[in-house]
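Try it yourself: sequence plus manganese (II) ion, in.
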Amino acid sequence: MYFCVNKYLMTRSEENYIKTIFHLGRKGTQEVATNAIAELMETKPSSVTDMIKRLSEKDLVNYKRYQGVSLTALGNKTALGIIRKHRLWEVFLVEKLDFSWDEVHEVAEQLEHIKSDKLIDSLDRLLAYPKFDPHGDPIPDKNGGFKERDRELLSEVPINTGGVCVGVKDSSATFLKFLDKNGIALGNQIKVMEIEEFDGSLNIEIDGRKMQISHVIASNLYIKANDGI
Amino acid sequence: MYFCVNKYLMTRSEENYIKTIFHLGRKGTQEVATNAIAELMETKPSSVTDMIKRLSEKDLVNYKRYQGVSLTALGNKTALGIIRKHRLWEVFLVEKLDFSWDEVHEVAEQLEHIKSDKLIDSLDRLLAYPKFDPHGDPIPDKNGGFKERDRELLSEVPINTGGVCVGVKDSSATFLKFLDKNGIALGNQIKVMEIEEFDGSLNIEIDGRKMQISHVIASNLYIKANDGI
DNA sequence: ATTATAATTTAGGCAAATCTAAAAATTTGT
DNA sequence: ACAAATTTTTAGATTTGCCTAAATTATAAT
Ligand SMILES: [Mn+2]
Ligand SMILES: [Mn+2]
Ligand SMILES: [Mn+2]
Ligand SMILES: [Mn+2]
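Structure, out:
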């Protein structure tokens, strides 16, 4: 098949594999391991091998036995398309249907597989072309254009650093509900006041209010440091 | 399986069969034939038999070999849930995303399978609880409540009858585009002025404008007759 | 009442996506 | 360098959903 724009022929399962490989490929720059895919997708390595072969057949991934897998240009573009849909739907659910940020992911996992360019582009327009999803993750544009916002983990910045909370690393419902309960949200001004040597916990000031958070919490919050004067 | 609320375990294919059986069951009051299902779903009778057995196993349909099939109470409720979703999504596409009424069906066929009560009920609220979809078909409420609007085919009403165009029987893109081209839309006032004996074509007045339409067209337009004084 | 026709079901097979168990290749530890 | 541990792949089975071809049952025609 020459020039196979296979976007519309892909199964849901294939799309989910491509998306997972994309996410795993971002972290390390190297090839993605079969076991890593299996673990993240809660499936068996043998199933992964099967699927990888099919994806390789369709020119979505580069694959050599025992050597791990990586996305081709086509695979990458496909992944960005799915992620665009996922994140736009998440914005829709929050902005238009009053979902909370811990409820959107599950439904977006389904909606991201709906096939219609017109649908997703109209949705984009309805939402006024948002650049970030409810968890602070960037939304690829129509052409897969991606602006990775420059941000740092709260746990990694030096003392006295102030900035805006712009994202979460873990976007599990558990963590998000924890943040809600403690009044931590995207957009808040956060300043690191003190770091406990003993357990790495942080004393922070968040929108003027003082509180203490564990290292684990801090290592799952992204801030964008305030512009130095 | 006792008390199996299987709504969330159903496959897309199963849902499509249930929906088709529902639609076919509405017309004639009797059992639905295997061949009728196969034809409407563009599949083979043997495939239908296969699926019917599975659905029967799950208590969604009543089935006796060679005797046709009908929905159980559970099957009926399931069908109404899917149709509710389909039609609400169609309204969404037209009202919020500026789709035209001939573009919505295909996408709604996909969206109707998204599983989330919260999603569909929020969508219902966003749309202000619409009672009819863009083609004039009634939208079941949360509990499957259905108000079949009383309406008649334009081809069946006597001469001089006037009424509002409230629906289409055929909602194929071809027919809908034809109506667009000829300035016929839901909400128009239509009055039958004359019926040609030769070919059954009708002279009508539509929102004041006179035009002639074939019998085929008239037999695919529903009107609600004006209240007599 | 047979026979012909039509509808439906069965039998057997195939592709996608998964699994378990076993084999093969790679990596690690000494 | 070689054995042990780990990772990955293969082999073979299962389920869903579909197909073709053949058999069965029901219906219509004479
Ligand atoms: Mn998500
Ligand atoms: Mn997100
Ligand atoms: Mn429709
Ligand atoms: Mn409709």
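One thing you can check immediately is this: Chain B has a mean pLDDT of 94.
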